[in-house]
Amino acid sequence: MIPGFIIFEIVFWVLYYIVTRNIKSDVDLWNDEQE
User: Fold this and answer.
1) pLDDT the model gives residue 1
2) For the whole prediction, is pTM greater than 0.85?
3) What are the distances in angstroms from CA 29 to CA 10, 16, 17, 18, 21?
4) How far lies 13's CA from each of 27, 29, 30, 32, 35, in Å?
5) Domain of life of the organism in this record (predicted)?
6) Burial track 1-35 (b if 16+ CB lie within 10 A, e otherwise)
7) pLDDT tens digits, residue range 5-23?
């Protein structure tokens, strides 16, 4: 494997984790406002 590719995968998964977590928190806030 190419080290650069490994670094790319780590960055990709970190960004993916942050984005999905932000979406979940946004959905929770939206649900709270609806109730």
Assistant:
1) 66
2) no
3) 29, 20, 18, 17, 12
4) 21, 24, 25, 28, 33
5) Bacteria
6) eeeeeeeeeeeeeeeeeeeeeeeeeeeeeeeeeee
7) 999 999 999 999 999 998 8
